[in-house]
């Protein structure tokens, strides 16, 4: 068994698609109309056959509440691996991304946390 799709709640699918592709550099794999919303799945440019990240609308009250509570408590919704957390931090800051935690050593891992502008905190990590 392996993870093939994981999702993140977003408050605006168009805004999320723009941020995750143009700012973070993910590649759009699927963008399929599904009634009021869309099935938008992204992949890493380095592994386009790998795990897909679904930009899931937070239109359900429980999804909105969950997303708000973990954001307010400073809990990242997910984590992305990077080769060099300091380089990625600098790149994203130069693109206007707001960080809530600058690169920090956590034992064998270096992490940083940023606001994805779509209702989530995202952690980047370097092992």
TrEMBL record:
Residues 1-127 form the VOC domain. InterPro entries: Glyas_Bleomycin-R_OHBP_Dase, Glyas_Fos-R_dOase_dom, VOC_core. Pfam families: Glyoxalase. It comes from the Bacteria. PANTHER family: GLYOXALASE/BLEOMYCIN RESISTANCE PROTEIN/DIOXYGENASE, GLYOXALASE_BLEOMYCIN RESISTANCE PROTEIN_DIOXYGENASE. This is VOC domain-containing protein.
